User: Fold this.
Amino acid sequence: MTVSPPLIHRPTLAFLLPLFVFLVIVQWYPSFAGTQQAADGVVSFDTKTYMVMLIVQIAIAMSLMIWFRKVYFRHFPLNISPLSVLVGAVGIIVWVGLCHLEIENYVMGLVGWGRTSAERPSFNPFLHLPTVGWQIAFLVPRFVVLAIIVPIIEELFLRGLVVRYVHDPDWEMVPLQGLSWSAVLAPTVYGVATHPGEAVAAIAWFSLVTWLMLKTGNVWDCVVAHAITNLLLGLYVIWFAQWQLW
Assistant:
């Protein structure tokens, strides 16, 4: 009789801990709500606290990823397919297009519930931060988190741990292909739960990256696709002033 390994052991911590700590730190961020336009260098948003928390978040996430790097590369040797770049580029079209359709609010209106309350705050750093220095100081680490930290820790958690554990609690030798339907759907369920205001876009985008995972069996392809979509999303938000997608 085989015995499943304990849930909390080094490989589990490697795939779980960076995202867990990241999400805990997010809870300490000052709120964007009620931020007023910058005037005479005074802003209602607590910029300094936000910057400190953002830098701490990056430092801890990077430290944990470096600490556990041998676990990641033992489970998934580094290999990247050109298909990941294409999926990432298609992903931004899917995400932005479906977000702008606001299907969630349409459905909520049909059932008489009004607009969803899960929309993101529309924080515009060029409007709410008083100087170019503060704007750059805000945007650089924000893009590091958006295009580097989040894609790595979220995909390692979802594809490295969750889908394999859902498929088989004795998960360490489970490949990212030939998975059960419950395992395949797990990332999309996570996406909807973490993006309720963009549920339709989340269903489409997370399903697209799951298709990539099943196609190549490589977590690093999912990381690259996620990173490209997030980078392009950040650039889109700034270029077209679509701060509600921030």
